[in-house]
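User: Quick sanity check before I run a bigger batch. Here is a single chain. Can you write out its predicted 3D structure?
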Amino acid sequence: MKLRWNWALAALACLMLVACSNANNLDTNGVKPDRDPDEGLVDNGKTDTLSNWYTTIVANIDVPGKYAGAISYPDWFHGVTLTLKAGDEVTISASTSAEGYFRVYGPSYRTLFGRPLFKKPVFQTLTSDAGNGDFTASTTLKVKESGLYLLVYGPRYVWNAKYAVKVEPVPLGCGSDADCKDGEFCQQVYCITTPCPALCQPKGGVNAFCTGPNMCQSGLACINNHCTQLPFGGCESDDDCSDGFCGYTEDGSRTCKPYQKEGESCGGFVPAHLYKQCAPELTCAAPPFIADGPGVCSLKVSVAELLKDPKAYHGHVVTLTGDIKAGLAFCTLMACSPQNACCNSCGGNQIIVDEGSDAQDGVRLRDENGKEYSCGGNNCTYQDNCTVKNGKYFVIGTFTTLTEYEHYLDVTSIHAYFE
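Assistant: Done. Predicted structure follows.
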């Protein structure tokens, strides 16, 4: 143990001598001499002086977290530490004002005089020109070992540079079967609070429980909620169908079936031979929080997309998720006394806008009889007296544009989100 400490002190003294010697010969007037970042490998090449001596540790961040700073003479490199756990998957990125070295080290294998020491980097690169005056670098790190990690940046040719580093967890889940590996399907998880994730699950074999054909392995059909081996005929996959999809018949064979068109029903908890699938450009829009509920083939768009090019969506069945609120109100102009502060009558239409938007020019709503959604009452309460309670909704309907500034959604299905 005594020999190890003697070695450590000797190595540290050597590094200090090298650093001091180099610092005395530096040009501090702008041009920074390029150096080999791997110069001075120690401990049989396992560690480098870049992370363990020439880096000034300036901050510690959490996950998710970020740090922005500036580096100048006499610092060669700046480091930011963070703690990661085995199994974590994070995206690490840097944005800098000058080309430089960006490295990720970890986990720390020991400390020396209170300073964490690191072995060779688990990621290293030069920040590259992003074309807008900034230089960037990023990587996705799958953490194999828990511990303290270090993010290091230092400009390559200049002393002064600004930088920002950010660490974010990689989102879990999937949006569709296409996001999963071969032999897996995307299963929506239903829960009381939002957001509810969708997770990739392995496809079932013979007799495995299922609620849809995508939950079974290739060559199996979902019949009576069990993956079942069936003789195939007509087609084996959608690739065999020139126009439509490869679906099941009542006797268990397979044949090419036409896609459902815009506005037609789809999905739902039905036997395999009754399963209906939308055309590829459409989505099967089903009410949220209703497991295996039937849907409607429609275009999934945002309010901003509708308003940007309303003529392109005129007459189409669309699905919107957004906030319904009272639009511009019209009120009488009587002077109200303090004893009767709510003496004016007010009214106005209800509109849907993208979630979180404070826009006042959304899409107006009408019911199946053409009656417009609206709010009415006195100037104190009219926003509480509306066709539907203001809030977040999932809406399906036909979009109609009458003029440049007058757009409607003729609602066929509307469901509130329960936060």
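Residues 26 and 180 are 54 Å apart (CA to CA).

User: Great, the batch can go ahead then.
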